[in-house]
Amino acid sequence: MSSGSGEAPPTLSVSDAVAMRVREARARRGWTTKQTAEACAAAGVKTLTAATLANIETGRRTQDGTRRREISVDELAALAAVLDLSPTHLLGLPDNAEPGTKIRITPGLAFDDGALLLDWFRGQRPLPGTDARQFYSAALQRMPAEDGQKAVADLTRSVLEERAAQLTASVNSTMARVQEAIRAGATEEEIAALFQPGPADPK
Which of 90, 129, 149, 186 is 20 to 30 A from 137 (CA-CA)? Predict the structure, then answer.
């Protein structure tokens, strides 16, 4: 999936990326879509026919390139089992993705960091811009004790970084108001009042 000369690297949906990784995985085994479908049928997954696999890999695109055929969680798990892989192996950036290629998680969240995406899929690291405390709290419930200690350390660091960012933003906002007040000729008392914590300031 090349973007062409001079064009920005593509942004893939999760299904786009999984389809490319499925194609890569079966190619490594030397399997055609027909052989992959036969392996699926032998495993009892008769719905993954050669035609269905072709539709999964191509996405059955509309004229504007929109993918009409998404990949279900059940299909992801079945294909991973048939290909003798972990489901996680079928997630993340394709091996042959162009540098800068992103995977779109939501309309507002897209990432080109393959290591970050794999860590998130494995439950090891939250995505930037999401609630790290919620992520680690949930992850800790499924982690062995030794991994849990690292998760606690990561959570502590994440909370401290978030707190530092909040304090920095608050200080920058206050200094901007002070500079504006000085330019407007505010009195010392009025300037001092700007340093008093307000309802929105971190405690």
Answer: 90
